[in-house]
Amino acid sequence: MDCNSSENKATLVFATNNAHKLEEVRAIIGDRFEIKSLDDIGCHDDIPETADTLQGNALQKARYIKDKFGYDCFADDTGLICSALNGEPGVRSARYANDNNHEHDSEANMKLLLKNLSDKNDRSAYFMTVIALIYQGQTYTFNGVVNGVISHEKHGDGGFGYDPIFVPEGYDKTFAELGNEIKNTISHRARAVAKLDEFLKSC
Ligand code: IMP
Predict the structure, then answer these.
(1) Residue 115 has pLDDT above 70, yes or no
(2) Ligand 1 mean position, distance from CA 94 (Å)
(3) How far is the C-alpha of 142 from the C-alpha of 201, rounded, in Å?
(4) What is the C-alpha to C-alpha distance for residues 59 and 56, in angstroms, rounded to an integer?
(5) pLDDT tens digits for 2-15?
(6) Active site (annotated) includes residue 77
(7) In contact, 113 and 96? CB cutoff 8 Å
(8) C-alpha angle with apex 131: 48 to 198, nearest 5 degrees?
(9) In sequence order, what DSSP letters do the residues of 132-173 get, joined into one string?
(10) Which region holds residue 34: left if phi is over 0, alpha if psi is between -120 and 50, else beta?
(11) Distance between Cα 6 and ligand 1 center (Å)
C-alpha cells in the first residue's frame, strides 16, 4: 500500500468519536489517509479499557477495532501523572474522583487532585498521551509528553479535563488560560500525533 498517494487514500480508523481529536488528526494526516471515526465504521461498542497502563489501554482499543472490524487503526490514551502522588491520577485520570462514573466529571477530578496535593511541596506533573497504531500487520506506539506544575486553584475557562489547573513548563498560565492555539502546539497529544505523522510519512 502506498500511503503517500493522495488519489487513492488508504483508510485508517481513529478509535474515537471525539470531534476535537478527529479534527486535530485529520488536519495533520488527512491529506494522505482517510481518517474514519468509530461512528464512521458503525462501531457503537463500549470498547474495553481495562489495562493498568496508558499504553495497555491504547493497545487494547486498537486491537479491538482490528480484530472486530479488520481496519488498520490507531487509538490513544492520556493521563496526568503527578510526582508527589506516585503517578496518580495516571491511567485513572478520567475517573479519578469516581471509579464507577462513566461520565467524566472534570470538576470533581480537579477538586480531588487539588485536595490530595494540598499538603505537598512538589506540584510537578506531566501529561502523557500514548498512541497505539496497528498498521500493515505491525503494532507501534508513540508517546507525547508535556511537563508542568499543578496550580493551587483553577484558572481559565478554556479547554477541558484538568486544563484549568495545569501550567505547562515555560508558561505562567494554565492550559485553560492559554487557549487551544498555544495548547495545540505544545500539548502531549500534539507531540504524540506528530510522531505518528512522522512515522506514516516514512512508509
Ligand atoms: P483520554 O484518554 O484522551 O480520554 O483522556 C483521559 C482523561 O485525561 C480525560 O478524561 C481528561 O480528564 C484527561 N485529559 C486528557 N487530555 C487532556 C488535556 O489535554 N487536558 C486536560 N485533561 C486531559
Answers:
(1) yes
(2) 6
(3) 14
(4) 5
(5) 454 446 799 999 99
(6) yes
(7) yes
(8) 155
(9) EEEETTEEEEEEEEEEEEE-SS---S-SSTTGGGEEETT-SS
(10) beta
(11) 32
What pLDDT is attached to residue 7? 60
User: 127 alpha carbon to ligand 1 midpoint, in Å?
Assistant: 8
Please identify, by atom number, the ligand 1 atom nearest to the C-alpha of residue 159. Answer: 20
Q: Check residue 159 and give its pLDDT.
A: 87
Instruction: Tell me how far CA of residue 154 lies from CA of 28, 124, 147, 163, 178, in angstroms.
Output: 31, 16, 18, 9, 13
Q: What is the mean pLDDT of residues 123-150?
A: 98
Residues having CB closer than 6 A to ligand 1 are 76-79, 93-94, 104, 106, 109, 159-163, 175, 187
Exactly one of 72, 76, 77, 163 is catalytic; which is it? 77
User: How far is 29 from 197, CA to CA, in rounded Å?
Assistant: 6
